[in-house]
Design a protein that fits this description.
This protein is mainly alpha-helical. It is about 55% helix and about 5% strand. A two-stranded antiparallel ribbon has the order 1-2. A two-stranded parallel sheet has the order 3-4. The radius of gyration is 19 Å and the shape is globular. The two termini are about 20 Å apart.
Length: about 280
């Protein structure tokens, strides 16, 4: 899928061909090709319509120049083909103040913390994985101990500990959120070993899913707050950073973008486009 967006402030292209890796593997099996044919067809149809709409509007050079009715029409096209924008994440009202406190305490994006929690446990404080990860943010026992978390099933301790961990990872990787997420998922040792995002399927799927969650925005499930959407430029920066990070599924020369990654990254770009 190719969507180009021109940043109105700097007039520079910020999205381009993220979902079409530049190199195609010569040994891709016919089975894999068949499994992605549906999503490829949808993406191609959307792109063709997008290009046509841009050409038909006088002076329009990017998605950001398209009027609301046109963007809605493009969204309807996707809906009719089985591709729809996901609703904002619904955060338990009892947990949102904790996420806010953690974000403010450790200087991390509240939406990013919520996106990780959605992916890790769907906000279940009693969650425990098969390898022993605990609580809302799925902290491993040794990690929790190192963070000073004495009860990983206590929501506040768990979320505060995870925010401290994520903040440290972001600082460790000089602001590279993709590497911080890779380390959160697979450990810093593996990020160092592979000099980037490790090639593990779980980790490769993890980052696009968290970015997809983030792009959706969030709202409390008890109606105590209005929907909070991430700034368009922030999402653009995160996606651009991901694309340039060694080992990412969309990086130069990659050809193994799977359907889950493609769907998640499509969601990121569609969410962003829909709010221009």
């Amino acid at each position: 899928m190719r969507i180009s967006i021109i940043n109105p402030e700097s007039r520079q292209q910020v999205f381009s061909e993220y979902l079409q890796p530049s190199a195609k593997a010569s040994n891709v099996s016919s089975t894999n090709e068949a499994s992605s044919s549906t999503s490829n067809a949808v993406n191609s149809t959307f792109q063709n319509q997008l290009d046509q709409k841009i050409q038909n509007q006088s002076g329009a050079t990017s998605v950001s120049n398209l009027d609301t009715a046109t963007i809605q029409e493009l969204k309807n096209t996707l809906n009719n083909q089985g591709v729809s924008l996901q609703e904002p994440i619904r955060v338990p009202g009892s947990l949102e103040p904790i996420f806010k406190k953690a974000a403010e305490t450790y200087g991390v994006d509240e939406g990013l913390l919520i996106s990780i929690a959605k992916n890790e446990s769907n906000f279940r404080s009693d969650a425990k994985s098969s390898v022993g990860a605990m609580g809302i943010m799925q902290l491993m026992p040794g990690t929790a101990q190192g963070l000073g978390v004495t009860d990983a099933y206590d929501p506040e301790q768990n979320i505060m500990g995870a925010a401290k961990l994520l903040s440290g990872k972001i600082e460790q990787y000089n602001g590279n959120v993709s590497l911080a997420l890779a380390a959160y998922s697979a450990g810093s040792g593996n990020v160092k070993k592979y000099d980037g995002i490790p090639p593990f399927t779980e980790t490769q799927n993890y980052i696009p899913r968290v970015l997809s969650n983030y792009s959706r925005g969030y709202v409390t499930d008890d109606g105590s707050s209005s929907t909070v959407y991430p700034a368009t430029q922030t999402v653009i920066n995160l996606l651009d950073q991901y694309n340039l990070t060694n080992g990412s599924a969309t990086g130069t020369g990659r050809s193994d973008l799977n359907d889950r990654q493609k769907n998640d990254l499509t969601q990121v770009m569609m969410q962003t486009t829909s709010r221009l």
